[in-house]
Design brief:
The complex is a heterotetramer.
Chain A lengths: L1 E3 L3 H22 L1 H28 L5 E12 L2 E9 L1 H24 L6 H20 L3 H19 L6 H34 L7 H6 L6 H18 L8 H4 L5 H10 L4 H8 L1 H4 L3 H24 L3 H21 L3 H28 L17 H14 L6 H15 L3 H26 L7 H4 L7 H16 L14 H10 L10 H25 L3 H8 L1 H8 L4 H48 L7 H24 L1
Parallel strand pairs in A: 1-2
Antiparallel strand pairs in A: 2-3
Chain B lengths: L1 H36 L13 H4 L7 H14 L10 H18 L9 E3 L2 E3 L9 H22 L3 H32 L4 H6 L4 E2 L3 E2 L2 H4 L1 H14 L11 H4 L9 H26 L8 E2 L2 E3 L5 E3 L2 H29 L5 H29 L5
Antiparallel strand pairs in B: 1-2, 3-4, 5-6, 6-7
Chain C lengths: L2 H20 L3 H21 L3 H26 L11 H21 L19 H10 L2 H22 L4 H17 L1
Classes of the chains: A mainly alpha, B mainly alpha, C mainly alpha, D mainly alpha.
Amino acid sequence: MNVEFAALSLILVFPALGVLFNLFLGPRLGRSAVNVVGPGVMFVAFAVATWAFLSILAMPAGSALYCPLWRWLEAGKFHVELGLRVDALSGVMVMIVTGVGAFIHLYSVGYMAHDEDYARFFTYLNLFAFSMLILVLADNLVMMFVGWEGVGLCSYLLIAFWYTNPEFAYNGRKAFIVNRIGDAGFLLGIFTILATLAHHGVWSLNFVEMQAHADMFDVTAATAAGLLLFLGATGKSAQIPLYVWLPDAMVGPTPVSALIHAATMVTAGVYMIARMNFLYVLAPDAMAVVATIGGLTAFFAGTIAIVQPDIKKVLAYSTISQLGYMFLGVGSGFFAAGIFHVMTHAFFKGLLFLCAGSVIHGMGGEQDMNKMGALRHKMPITFWTMLIATLAISAVPGFSGYFSKDLILEGAYESGHFWLWLLGAITAGITGFYMFRLIFMTFFGESRVEPDKMHHLHESPPVMTIPLIVLAVLSAIGGYVGLPEGLLWGDAFAKFLSPVVGNFKPAVEASPAMLSLVATSLGMLGILLAYIFYLRMPGLPMILAWRLKGLYELLLEKYRIDELYNLLITRPLFFISDYILNRGIDQTLIDGTANGAGLAVESSGEVARRAEDGNVQHYAFVYLLGVIAIVGYYLYLVVK
Amino acid sequence: MTIELVVGAIEAILMVLIGLHLSIFLLYFERKGSALIQDRVGANRANITGIGQKLGMPNLGIINTLVADPVKLFTKEDFVPEGADHFIHGLAPFLALFPVLITFAVIPFGDTITIAGHTFNLQAAGLNAAALYLLATIGMGVYGVALGGWASNNRWALLGGIRATAQMISYEIAMGLALVAVIMTYGTLDLQAMVRSQGGVWFGFLPRWGILVQPLAFILFLTAGVAESKRIPFDLPEGESELILGYMVEYSGGKQAAFMFTDFAEQALTAMLLVTFFLGGWQIPWLYRDGFHFPGGHFLAIAPLAVSILGVIAFLIKVVILCAFLGLVRWSLPRFRYDQLMRLGWKGLVPLGLANVLVTAFIIVATGGAH
Amino acid sequence: MPPILFWFLATLSVVSALGVVLQRNPVHCLLALVLTLLAIAVLFIGQGAVVVGFLQAIVYAGAIMVLFLFVIWLLNLPVVTGSTGRLAAKLLGAVGVAALLAELEVFWVPSHLQVKAAQHAAGYGAIDALSQTLFSEYLIAFEVTSVLLLVAVVGAVALARRTTDAEVQSQAGNSSRTEKAA
Amino acid sequence: MVQLSWLMELSAAIFAIGVAGFLSRRNILVMFMSIELMLNAVNLAFVSLGSRMGTMDGQVIVFFVMTVAAAEAAVGLAIIISIFRNRETVNADDLTLLKW
């Protein structure tokens, strides 16, 4: 059942108004106006989104709201009709984006209170929300791509928000360029889909129409399109091999890390794959690639997170790792589980970043965990909320992360990817270890805070702690919408999504309880190890690092992937550009030709210029000769 | 044919004589009238016989100004400075005077007159493009002063010449624009036709004079005319206090008299043109070919010949009154500064003239064409 | 136009044109040119082109030539004495001019001028007729001419301006300083 | 009766004088005047032919020539002034750079 729902456009309109307001009036009207408008538009959008979401819940399963806009472009038979669509899948995403987004906007009011470029920050933030909502609400691939590019731009702008620092600006560019590679893949994917459909006479990229004509894809086309789209997803969602930008993106303001680089934008890839599920189910190979990449990413990023000293870097690698889980989920065919994890991850990872931001804010900008410790008494609210988030991400039973991660691992196992399941389960242990390492190093133990920062240390203002509390509640209870089968209302979330993403069909029988037990045990083991390493025997990590020096440094230096890319791609590229294209072709061949032509003209001109002595009267005399000739010609005509 | 030619020649001579006599009147006014205005005695020498005083009349200085001064002027040494261009130095005064004198030829000083069966137009040269002729001759007048200033080999003279040239060219434009509006109003270039169309009345009593239709053009033309004749308040080229006498400084005797006469003749010409364009020319209010038709319905029959002669007299009276008015202006107003002069010309009169042309055109189109 | 008038004007215009070319003093050249222009103006009027003839006198002789006069004054050139230019070049030029003149004279002999003489319509050459043609057939050209004049004014001002704005300002500053000093 | 050919040959003569002046005089101001001579010679031809054919077109062309001459004089004289300011000469033999 599709219902036209014009109010959907309001979800876009309000952030857009916020952008215009903050851009043109914000700097003039000052902080208080921006404080009201910046988060305000998001709360209004959240209210409208809630209204839409409740409408869907009230309607029969599989219903959708839509809002046609206008015909955007037309090229031959191909045309793009812009439209907004909210079904179960995009409904969940809209709720995440507007809801989490609204609270992070609110949090930013406190976090950015001392920044000069306050209005610019909220301009970008609102612009991001606007773009993300376009991405989510789009009813066709082209419009989704517009949003996709828009969030990329905002990501770049916000990473390089403090652009006067050259390193930050560099990191912004890095994120942008790495994303470009993925975007190229995404675009090629769109072309592949369009080419396939157009070959059969369907000139549309509308999701509903594409799904209706899914039978036109053969396996090759579906695999090609799926892999190309997934390349886009690896860029946007920071998967192997394009994940390198995300850790560097942490130089942006922390609310940005929370909103863009944890809760919403980076999950766009997962959303896109879930949205294109009808395509992926046709291409098992592509699905396997997605699942494998996801599993590997989850594991590798987790191992890097173990040794990072920077609180935000830990969370960044943790994000990459969790995103890997999501791809493992959707790659296994359990799309609902992936989206479920997107949601719970948005709660707890958003919360973790906000808490980290709160800590950094309280520490006056310090991010090194070696210079923290024993903060739990100084910042109680931050501590308790962060603990809840950590329990959630570590998949401690009862917290939201437990339910979603469990579903994913179950999906991986039941779809036949035993090794990936094992990798995921081990990663669960690693997750528990590094997250509790973070908690212990930050809030427990002895204070290693530098003396001059002690007096500055304070709990954050209510405008920052309220979002923490809200998200903490959600992190704690958010998972109960998807209980294991047979328990109370069962997996309501998956049922809700199933009309859009289909039901998960297990290939291998397994006992969910056993799987859950293994993974949970590994998680608990990780937490226990962290407890031993960082609270009971604080010297142990040092010794271990010294003993396993090679491994430790390899992890600390993130497997030297950046260096590898430098060696394999950047340096050869520079070499080709400089030595072959620049010096070889440009300077020698083209410049040589041009200079040679110039030289030829110059030397012949040297001879010819003697006729051109610059004296006007000499020219005039030649002119006169011409006139005499012309008149003579006419005279000849007349006389004849 | 022959008789027309003879009459034309007589008319031309007559017109030049009128112009020159007006100049003499202005010369007298210059001396004696200014004295009256400034509460001085003025020219009071050369009272040869003393008869006037014996009869108890005030000393009018007539002999002084009209006999003694010219005699003095024409008997002075004709001096040409060293290094001057002799030919042009001698040519310049007459280059200045000549265009003014030939301009008198196109001014209609009366209606047609019929004597012994022959009908004559009281206009020396009945050109049908007289208004253009006017502009052309006035434009030629620049060369006299310009070359006079240049040929004297004197810095003050050159400065005066340059000032005069710039001033005359600038105000010619304003004058031309005023004239364009006038031409548009009457729909003709023929001055006699312009005067004719100023006959008759509006609302039964108001004479159809041009000043009532084109008041702004009148003011523009008056101002530009005064500036053209380089008299106070536009006497920057002569500027006695700064340039001694400007382009005339190296002239003496008859040549200087020619320059002076040019100024007076230009003043007289300005007066005549103003009368022709704006004050009805030779028209007398309510007088038609057969006599007076007073507004109340009264009628006074007059012979046609007398009507023509009355017209000539009316023209002369109007011109003399205007000449006197121009003299009053000359002795009443202080001199402009040069930049003020240029600003008035280019930023005041020219835009006003353009606006006037525009409004006139609009009204003509709106009321369905010229007459 | 009686032939006697034509011959008078023709002689006048040729002699004064030669005066333009042959006299040394630029002011004299200019005067000769004005005379040529006026003679040609009268030739126009004699052929019925009354308005154009007067315009020639007003615009050409009355305005453009005064501009020349101004420039001559501004430059304040010394009168050149002695020979200018090489004899060979002059001879070559003279040959060229003579060739052109010969060609044109042959070109215009009566038997080659096959123009059918037409009667002048009433009002030929008057301002009405000129305006009728100008504002109907040649309207676009007329409007373009107004643009040309505007461009010329702007161009002339831009070219003849002595200094840049900055220099003018600095000069203004200097002069005000000297005024204060005085 | 004035013959058309007389007028045309007068026009040709004045034109040739203008050409000669342009080629022989070194003072660019006088060269400029020679150009005006040539323009007027052509004007005379236009008016004469137009008058003989009884059309107004010749006169209209003359009108345009005058306008163009006015524009040309304004710009040309401005150029001469600025050349003189920079080079202190108006002798065409010394102005062979064709720029300033």
